[in-house]
């Protein structure tokens, strides 16, 4: 503080210090103002950056929403295309298997006639050609169903001995043509599975075993182990090298030493897919030059008292028995008539629908009913069987024949006590089924 009595030098010194302090305060004030301005400018820049990034995010969200809408439309179109494919294959399976089934019946009737060696060779080659077409069609239909996300299974108790008898009737001619022994071991096991897909699994395994076996034979059996029953298919073929044991389950894979065996390499792929969907474990063991064993683990649910083998020779049981056939296709009607009358010695009565079947039956119920599922004008085999049983006042044994692999059909057959037979119809299998029903 300045005093009046301070000498001039002292006053100058004090004024100099006061001036320095004021200048320092002014400098600090200016620095403070500059920092606040910088912060203000930074805040403005940050806000602009946030606004820019927000606009970018909004554009990205709009683009993502558009892409999601496009994906939803594409998915809906793909699902509709898949449903259309399923509907087409379902319709095509009936339209294609119907004439193929009729041709099978006619070819079987032809083989029962006297033929010279050249004609026999021709019929054998025709049979092989039909077999190839059937396998390809079944493979396409099986893969289509197994790839579907909405596939339904009709799980139920399946007696393996019944399955083995049908497989024996189906594959005996194929094994005999190659000079191979084909054995199915008797079993009392009853397992839990889908009967149609379990049969397809076994068909592919047995067919592959016969194809890739040049001498010796094929044996099919079942062995209980814990809660599972292992269905096994043994062959005495060339074996599968260790490096190939995984890829044989892929599509269109065939072994290099297959010897020109027919097929497209789809059978084991179908086996793997079906087992995965049904939860059945599958294993493979093989020794070079010794053979191969495929095993499928099936949940064991019970056992029959003893294997029923009454249908090994069905012809004596069938001779003179009356079979009422409900089929709207003229070629199939003629084919059934030839097989039932000429080969099996039965008395066929043919009708095209439910009303005609009732008129044909009259007061004498047949011994067995053979009904095609898909008839005309909304008529079905189920309606025919129900009407005939009601008119006969007893549960006449019945076989439902269809090209539709629909679990709903299988469930209704099981509920009505009707045996289900898939097209194309094989006469040996038909004879085996009829023999068991009428034994």
UniProtKB/TrEMBL annotation:
Annotated Histidine kinase domain residues: 91-302
Chain segments annotated as coiled-coil in the UniProt record: 12-81
Gene3D superfamilies: 1.10.287.130, 3.40.50.2300, Histidine kinase-like ATPase, C-terminal domain
Lineage: Bacteria, Pseudomonadati, Pseudomonadota, Alphaproteobacteria, Rhodobacterales
Family matches, as SUPFAM superfamilies: ATPase domain of HSP90 chaperone/DNA topoisomerase II/histidine kinase (SSF55874), CheY-like (SSF52172), Homodimeric domain of signal transducing histidine kinase (SSF47384)
GO molecular function: histidine phosphotransfer kinase activity; phosphorelay sensor kinase activity
Domain Response regulatory stretches: 322-438
EC number(s) per entry: 2.7.13.3
Keywords: Coiled coil, Kinase, Phosphoprotein, Transferase
Designated name of the protein: histidine kinase
Keyword match Transferase: yes
Reaction equations catalysed: ATP + protein L-histidine = ADP + protein N-phospho-L-histidine
Residue numbers carrying 4-aspartylphosphate: 372
Any one annotated GO CC term: plasma membrane
């Amino acid at each position: 503080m300045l005093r009046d009595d301070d000498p001039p030098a002292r006053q100058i010194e004090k004024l100099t210090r006061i001036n320095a302090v004021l200048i320092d305060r002014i400098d600090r004030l200016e620095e403070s103002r500059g920092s606040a301005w910088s912060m203000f400018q930074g805040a403005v820049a940050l806000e602009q950056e946030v606004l820019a990034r927000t606009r970018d995010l909004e554009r990205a969200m709009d683009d993502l929403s558009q892409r999601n809408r496009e994906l939803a439309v594409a998915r809906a179109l793909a699902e509709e295309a898949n449903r259309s494919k399923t509907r087409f294959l379902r319709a095509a399976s009936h339209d294609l298997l119907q004439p193929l089934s009729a041709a099978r019946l006619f070819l079987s009737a032809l083989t029962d006639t006297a033929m010279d060696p050249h004609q026999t060779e021709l019929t054998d080659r025709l049979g092989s050609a039909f077999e190839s077409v059937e396998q390809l069609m079944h493979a396409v239909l099986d893969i289509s169903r197994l790839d579907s996300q909405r596939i339904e299974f009709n799980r139920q108790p399946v007696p393996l001995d019944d399955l083995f008898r049908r497989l024996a009737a189906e594959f005996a001619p194929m094994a005999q043509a190659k000079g191979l022994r084909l054995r199915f071991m008797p079993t009392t096991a009853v397992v839990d599975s889908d009967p149609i897909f379990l049969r397809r699994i076994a068909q592919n395994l047995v067919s592959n075993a016969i194809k890739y076996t040049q001498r010796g034979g094929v044996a099919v059996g079942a062995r209980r182990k814990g809660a599972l029953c292992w269905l096994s298919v043994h062959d005495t073929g060339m074996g599968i090298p260790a490096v190939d044991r995984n890829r044989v389950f892929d599509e269109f894979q065939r072994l290099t030493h297959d010897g020109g065996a027919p097929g497209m390499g789809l059978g084991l792929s179908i086996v793997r897919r079906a087992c995965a969907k049904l939860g059945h474990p599958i294993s493979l063991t093989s020794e070079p030059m010794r053979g191969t064993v495929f095993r499928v683990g099936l949940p064991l649910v019970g056992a029959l008292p003893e294997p029923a083998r009454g249908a090994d020779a069905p012809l004596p049981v069938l001779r003179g028995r009356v079979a009422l056939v409900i089929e709207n296709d003229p070629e199939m009607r003629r084919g059934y008539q030839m097989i039932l009358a000429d080969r099996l010695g039965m008395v066929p009565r043919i009708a095209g629908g439910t009303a005609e079947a009732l008129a044909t039956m009259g007061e004498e119920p047949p011994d067995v009913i053979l009904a095609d599922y898909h008839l005309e004008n909304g008529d079905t085999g189920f309606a025919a069987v129900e009407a005939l049983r009601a008119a006969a006042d007893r549960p006449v044994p019945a076989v439902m024949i269809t090209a539709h692999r629909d679990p709903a059909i299988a469930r209704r057959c099981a509920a009505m006590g009707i045996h289900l037979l898939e097209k194309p119809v094989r006469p040996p299998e038909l004879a085996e089924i009829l023999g068991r029903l009428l034994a």
